[in-house]
Design brief:
Keywords: GTPase activation. Pfam families: PH (PF00169), RhoGAP (PF00620). α9 (283-294) crosses α11 (316-338). This protein is α/β, with parallel strands linked by helices. It contains twelve helices and ten strands. The longest helix is centred in the last third of the chain and has 23 residues, at 316-338. Helices cover 42% and strands 12% of the residues.
């Protein structure tokens, strides 16, 4: 950032997508470890077309400037070679030319981050070319949950669009389970080239595909610290204060890829819940189906709950605590659905 001295550089890994330059502490190509916080997002830049790229060839420095940002932010990278430096310049200039208008970018200052490092040295991976990956659907990092490397919609995004168009009138959508083999077969078909959903596909199968993809994400859609922030906001007594606090928790504590993913899933759920008369899925019913997938840390006991259950030498206290966590998770997601337009200013 402007004004920060370049005294200490840290190696970081980068992914350039259609809308963001996001950086990681570790190599995002690493295979996910189940249950682990792999591909930890340290931060990044929301791209907009006001940006420009300035190169200092003598120091192998590249700076991305956003004059339309709130206070003229800049973001600087240091390359190991001139070849890398100019490859980055070409890639970033192409991305900025295709980026949204500055006025439409949701993060007004152009930069989001959740560590204290503002300048980086390291291996930049443009990632526009296809890379060998284990699956096109399952186990993808949060950053690529909704968008493929080429900028196109992912399996999950296409499935969400299908549900919003074809699932809204299906009774019990998201609640009624589909055949596990049918879900597995549809994912395999996608891997083999059937990458679009036909209008006559089984909505319950597509709904369970969405849940399966979310369940298999290598890290929780809502990280533990963000679950805690939502929980604290939800505990506020007055409705207006609660909604305002939940809005602040999402905008201020969430890493940008996680915020986008949560909002996108909630948008689909909101559409489903707005057709309760046809599908019999109220906001509370939709939340009950999806909350365990979105707020994993809360149900896993990683957030502080006000549990005063006494230990009686059996597992009754643990069962009560688990039920309390599930009830809180459902209540939080229900509130976000009922107040969706207020929380996300749509």
């Amino acid at each position: 950032s402007a004004g920060i001295g370049w005294k200490s550089w840290k190696r970081r890994w980068f992914i350039l997508t259609r809308t963001s330059l996001v950086f990681f502490k570790n190599d995002p190509r690493a295979l996910p470890q189940r249950g682990g916080e792999v591909n930890l997002t340290l931060g990044g830049i929301d791209l907009n077309n006001s940006g420009s790229v300035v190169v200092r060839e003598d120091k192998k420095l590249l700076t991305v400037l956003f004059p339309d940002g709130r206070d003229g932010r800049a973001f600087t990278l240091k390359a190991e070679s001139l070849e890398d430096l100019f490859e980055w310049k070409t890639a970033l200039e192409h991305a900025l030319a295709q980026a949204p208008n500055a006025a439409l970018v949701m993060c007004h200052n152009g930069i989001f981050r959740n560590d204290n490092a503002d300048t980086f040295e390291g291996s930049f991976e443009y990632w526009r070319d296809k890379r060998p990956i284990k699956s096109l659907v399952v186990g993808r990092p949060i950053l690529l949950a909704l968008e493929d490397i080429d900028g196109g919609p992912s399996f999950l995004e296409k499935a969400l669009r299908f549900l919003e168009k074809h699932g809204i009138k299906v009774e019990g959508i998201l609640r009624q389970a589909a055949d596990v083999e049918e879900v597995d077969r549809r994912i395999q078909e996608y891997e083999q080239g059937k990458t679009e959903f036909a209008a006559d596909e089984d909505s319950h199968v597509v709904g369970d595909c969405v849940k399966y993809v979310l369940r298999e994400l290598p890290s929780s859609p809502v990280p533990a610290s963000c679950c805690t922030a939502l929980l604290e906001a939800y505990r506020l007594e007055h409705k207006e204060a609660r909604v305002n606090a939940m809005r602040s928790a999402i905008s201020e504590t969430f890493p940008e890829p996680n915020r986008r993913l949560l909002q996108r899933i909630l948008k689909m759920m909101h559409v489903i819940a707005s057709h309760t008369a046809e599908n019999r899925m109220t906001p509370s019913a939709v939340a009950a189906c999806m909350a365990p997938l979105l707020l994993r840390p809360l149900l896993a006991g990683e957030c502080e709950l006000d549990d005063d259950f006494e230990m009686n030498g059996d597992n009754s206290a643990q069962l009560l605590a688990a039920a309390n966590a599930a009830n809180n998770a459902q209540a939080i997601i229900t509130t976000l659905l009922e107040e969706y337009e207020s929380v996300f200013d749509v």
